[in-house]
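Structure first, sequence second, as always.
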């Protein structure tokens, strides 16, 4: 399985042209969930990064350049669920969707207890706004405390 370090990859690298589908993953998946990762690497350019190590602005700038140059038709983000660092990769992908009008090409997947879940962009956008999350949870709280 070939998955290159995102920030060490030249934005004009030839192998980025091998596929018009990019798979962006949290680096921990290489060790923690290699079998799941293997399912998604096929026919995609795989790039990994750990946002515990790098600031999201560096990652977003690098990805923006790659998207602008290579114009992938799909940008698939695969991370573990619940990590505030990995969550930032999903936020970056939604930012790129907005910058480059990638209406159909951005997809989000998270792994929780060995199971893969598909997450839509509206969920990622909502999760950025804590007051919206609070408002969504309030009806649930009132029924469980009654």
């Amino acid at each position: 399985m070939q998955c290159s370090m995102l920030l060490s990859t030249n934005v004009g690298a030839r192998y980025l042209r091998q596929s018009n589908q990019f798979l962006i993953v949290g680096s921990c998946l290489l060790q923690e969930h290699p079998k799941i990762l293997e399912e998604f690497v096929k026919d995609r350019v795989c790039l990994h990064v750990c946002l515990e190590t790098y600031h999201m602005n560096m990652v977003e700038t690098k990805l923006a350049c790659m998207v602008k140059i290579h114009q992938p038709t799909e940008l698939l983000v695969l991370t573990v669920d619940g990590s505030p660092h990995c969550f930032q990769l999903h936020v970056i992908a939604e930012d790129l969707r907005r910058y480059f009008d990638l209406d159909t090409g951005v997809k989000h997947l998270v792994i929780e207890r060995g199971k893969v879940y598909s997450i839509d962009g509206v969920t990622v956008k909502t999760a950025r706004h804590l007051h919206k999350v609070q408002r969504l949870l309030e009806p649930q709280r009132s029924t469980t405390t009654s």
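Margin note: The longest strand covers residues 74-80.
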